[in-house]
Write a structure and sequence with these properties.
Number of strands: 2
Structural class: mainly alpha
Strand order of the largest sheet: 1-2
Distance between the termini: 25 Å
């Protein structure tokens, strides 16, 4: 999900939003929400549905609310889709008009392949 609805902004799930990790650039938002078709906003209802489904499958331990989770373990997918390096590259300066979507996708795919 790109962002969370206002009522969820103080919950840990807000830190998982793509907007929190990549900033509020319209070009990057477009990449995730239009090109990759990521959910634009996480609602409280959708969060509850996801948590309920995960519990039914046994995917959440009883301490799921502790904030521990799997954050920071780093998977190949997470590393492959990390576009922050592109924004920090010389000349990019985080400006939307300099963001080359084709280059970003190619670089992310290459990193994901290892």
């Amino acid at each position: 999900f790109w962002s969370v609805e206002p009522s969820l902004r103080q919950l840990p799930c807000a830190a998982w939003s793509l907007e929190a990790n990549y900033g509020s650039s319209e070009a990057i938002k477009h990449f995730f929400t239009v090109v990759l078709r990521v959910r634009e906003t996480l609602s409280r209802e959708r969060l509850q549905q996801t948590l309920d489904a995960s519990r039914r499958r046994g995917g959440l331990a009883s301490s799921a609310g502790s904030g521990d989770g799997a954050a920071g373990t780093g998977s190949a997918v997470e590393e492959g889709l990390d576009l922050r390096a592109l924004l920090e590259a010389p000349g990019a300066a985080g400006q939307d008009e300099d963001f080359d979507l084709d280059h970003a996708v190619a670089a992310a795919c290459q990193r994901a392949r290892g």
